[in-house]
Write a structure and sequence with these properties.
431 residues; mainly alpha; 2 domains; 3-stranded mixed sheet; elongated; disordered N terminus; DUF247_pln
Length: 431
């Protein structure tokens, strides 16, 4: 019996050692997985996943519907894979436009800059080096060829540019925060093309690709003014933000207000207190101002009265507006947390717009261009844009002498309500 037990002991020790060795290997693998998953965003990071609480409010607004760009949505949905075939066609045509050697040179550039590109993403792309380089090359060449064709007006035999509904969908997809390539990739690759590919009618411009991008995303009359500004552009979502902001706001001097905005009356209530809403045509989309002006009522020219005038540039609302604004706001939340100018602007409009009645008033004043035809839908859009958003509350809008405080102070004086009622009564009599 004892010999039998003794004879088993070496086998027992062998199994124990084997188990320890296996556990050690598993432990090593677990550590590797943890290290691989624990990807810390670099300072150069500018492309993010939209936070879950923000995404669930309107998932579709942050998800590409036609074309995926970059690693975050690469081949994730079957309906996006179809566009990969079109990318290959564009890459082939681009090779014919330039040369195979030029494509190889572009691929070499991406390979050299692979790490620089990867750290622009808030999460580590799981693609292998070869897969990542090929994906970046195809996506970049696809967009460059798309922009060149758009600039050349080659739409007759191009299904992407010749089909308005498809072109509009691609425009939206290319401006989604999760659907980006770093802008320096386009700028540097396009520079390597030299005279082989350049925007029509432009000479000696230091960033010709920005001209193509502006012509694709914006009306030419608007775009040609904006790309003269110098700024550190991150990607196309950032380009949309820069387009919404004027030069002064991009480099703000305003202090941040710690107090949250409360109890700002809506547009119809402010209108009832005598606030005059004025549409401003020739200013930045975010430059709202509020000031007292001395005027003579049209029907009572011999009387001078002080009126509080709220000046708001026209805001166009169409099918893609919510999608674009949501992605710019998400970018500000993650990349510009102390410069949330678009968020601040939208929150101020959210206070002004409670119901469709407020929308109708702003449409009547020319401040909102309603391309949806549904005032209730626009009111609902503005009411949800501020959810799960933390603004920086700039002094421009929310400070002690800012727009919001001027409006609240005016509304709080009963004399202003009485004066507005009296003026309305006189207008009815004389009208």
């Amino acid at each position: 019996m004892g010999g039998w037990v003794t004879s088993l002991r070496p086998s027992y020790n062998y199994q124990a050692n084997n188990n320890l060795e296996m556990e050690s290997k598993e432990f090593t693998i677990d550590i590797e997985k943890i290290l691989e998953a624990s990807f810390e965003a670099a300072p150069e990071c500018c492309i993010y996943r939209v936070p879950r609480d923000l995404r669930k409010i309107n998932k579709k607004a942050y998800t590409p519907q036609v074309v995926s760009i970059g690693p975050l949505h690469h081949c994730k949905q079957e309906y996006l894979i179809e566009m990969e075939k079109q990318k290959l066609i564009y890459v082939k045509k681009f090779g014919e436009r330039t040369s195979i050697d030029k494509l190889k040179e572009m691929k070499s550039f991406i390979k050299v800059n692979e790490r620089k590109i990867r750290i622009c993403y808030a999460e580590n792309p799981s693609l292998s080096s070869d897969e990542f380089i090929t994906m970046i090359l195809y996506d970049a060449v696809f967009i460059i060829e798309l922009f060149l064709r758009n600039d050349e007006m080659r739409t007759e035999f191009d299904i992407l540019l010749g089909t308005p509904i498809l072109k509009a969908a691609i425009k939206l997809d290319l401006q989604l925060l999760e659907n980006q390539l770093p802008y320096f990739v386009f700028k540097d690759l396009f520079f390597k093309l030299g005279d082989v590919a350049k925007p029509s009618g432009e000479e000696n411009y230091d960033d010709p690709f920005l001209i193509l991008a502006s012509r694709f995303f914006f009306d030419s009359e608007l775009g040609h003014l904006k790309y003269k500004y110098t700024f550190d552009l991150q990607h196309f979502t950032d380009l949309r933000r820069c387009f919404l902001l004027n030069k002064d706001i991009v480099n703000p001097t305003n202090n941040i207000v710690k107090e949250r905005l409360r109890d700002l009356p809506c547009a119809t209530k402010l209108d009832g207190s005598g606030v005059k809403f004025e549409c401003i045509e020739d200013r930045s989309s975010l430059e709202i101002s509020c000031e007292y002006k001395t005027k003579s009522p049209q029907l009572i020219p011999f009387i001078k009265v002080q009126e509080l005038e709220l000046q708001i540039p026209r805001f166009d609302v169409y099918d893609g507006t919510e999608c674009l604004i949501r992605n710019v706001m998400a970018l500000e939340q993650l990349h510009y947390p102390f410069e949330t100018h678009v968020c601040n602007y939208m929150i101020l409009l959210d206070f002004l717009i409670d119901t469709e009645t407020d929308v109708d008033l702003l449409v009547k004043k020319g401040i909102i261009l309603n391309c949806l035809g549904d005032s209730a839908a626009i009111a609902n859009m503005f009411n949800k844009l501020g959810l799960q958003v933390t603004p920086s509350y700039s002094e421009r809008y929310f400070g002690q002498f800012g727009v919001a405080e001027k409006l609240k102070a005016h509304y709080g004086k009963s004399w202003n309500h009485s004066k507005a009622t009296f003026q309305g009564y006189i207008s009815e009599i004389l009208g």
